């Protein structure tokens, strides 16, 4: 067996440990080395809070991320409660900057400096054993080049990135934290789905060349956000099997390359686009990729499980893609951890149903997030509101009910009612009840939120029918948040202690193993 650099270092440190006068320091060094060689994983998850009743962040960190072996997360912004809950967890973090801030950050170095101070420096740590948040990347914008945004954000991306970089440099963090810009898959265009024909969108060509030059100057990488589900819906030529890693025959042929899945096709389309502007060797990270489970036909848990398992197996096999053999993306972030019922549904009702877990932290299907062959662990002791639902009162005259439904659905979430969705078949007035209940739960089950001009009725009988689940919301009040944070504290301390024990045990085994070579 060959000893890698870090293994050799580990051996050296172990030898010196036996002689050292400074054992605690050396032990710490060894612990760190061992930790980093054992926990490297190329898969992370996106985690957002766009939910009417989000789970408390500390519950997510302890009950979902750590308990399922998740080692990296990508955040849409820099929410203080999320960053605080990640402190000391050892989880690698991508902090996001929302598109709305790009213009301001590009116009003011001072604004960029305070963004870095408030949202990075305050939390930062690159020490897995200590406290602090292990911030590894800052995502400048969230798909700012999306075709439907037009020129709204495009002119400000590089300016914002440049100012943030300057601020990081002043904070002595520029060699620890890299800047990335997540790009939607419509940044490139192609003909007949062929990767070799792909090129960056003409309106974006110049900006893209500047961005790539910036990324290359700072040893960063290209970040692609994939959207296999919308590709499946739009691309009649590519089958469901092709998108779900299930294609066994008739691959798509492009010159000498053969493609049997959408993932490789997308990666190689970017490789080809990068080559055409002189950056053909740049690494490609996948910033988000997933499959929804509701809100449209073929958006089901069964399909999502096929997709996720196919993806994880493909990444583990490290085969890479035809244009990048044996060179899979260094990191891939699954979309997404939890359902978020406040996400924008302009592109489709399925957008709110990408969670591997439901909004209340229960796994919809199984996939290896880092927990190995064990089933996923759910969040326990979820702080639900009461066992109460709001339904339509069938004894009333319902002639004027449409206005109430519109009001409920525009504020709450009716995306499961769409055709092909889990509640798409419940009919009228069941779907009115669904809308009323959604609004009622999003408003903390307040009496007024089930009024609807006297047409609403509060019930303690679960109105769920078949697949169509009438949810109960979660407590999210400030006082509740504080209480649950306190409750989770001892568990977290215990967890860190337990992690140290595991690491110690690994070090001892490596040492015993290494002594055979002395
Ligand atoms: C820090 O990030 C938060 C959330 O993304 C944002 O609201 C806030 O304005 C940022 N702070 C500064 C100083 O820009
Ligand atoms: C796409 O490819 C076909 C055949 O290879 C070609 O005839 C056509 O002109 C191409 N279209 C574009 C927009 O490049
Ligand atoms: C779809 O496939 C047909 C036949 O294989 C091909 O002629 C056509 O160009 C393809 N269209 C797209 C949009 O890929
Ligand atoms: C990258 O570095 C080169 C050489 O130092 C420089 O000319 C170029 O302007 C830089 N690009 C960006 C976008 O900062
Ligand atoms: C895009 O930029 C590259 C590099 O500057 C250039 O070679 C290419 O012609 C440009 N393509 C278009 C469509 O403008
Ligand atoms: C998608 O779902 C619809 C409705 O269930 C079904 O008719 C169709 O065959 C599915 N599409 C594919 C490609 O399986
Ligand atoms: C949703 O996205 C669309 C298109 O990007 C945008 O026009 C609209 O304002 C967004 N809606 C909300 C509520 O943010
Ligand atoms: C119908 O509902 C709307 C909105 O709730 C309300 O403003 C209006 O007065 C109602 N019309 C009648 C005739 O009850
Ligand atoms: C409820 O179902 C009726 C009948 O199928 C349909 O006309 C109506 O649009 C549905 N409403 C919603 C909000 O889905």
From TrEMBL:
Classification via InterPro entries: GH, Glyco_hydro_17, Glyco_hydro_17_plant, X8
Phylogenetic placement of the source organism: Eukaryota, Viridiplantae, Streptophyta, Embryophyta, Tracheophyta
Membrane topology: Lipid-anchor; GPI-anchor
EC number: 3.2.1.39
Top EC group: hydrolase
An annotated Gene Ontology molecular function: glucan endo-1,3-beta-D-glucosidase activity
One of the protein's GO biological processes: defense response
The name this protein goes by in its record: glucan endo-1,3-beta-D-glucosidase
Signal peptide: 1-42
Catalytic activity: Hydrolysis of (1->3)-beta-D-glucosidic linkages in (1->3)-beta-D-glucans
Organism listed in the record: Carex littledalei
Any one Gene Ontology cellular component term annotated for this protein: side of membrane
Main localization, broad class: membrane
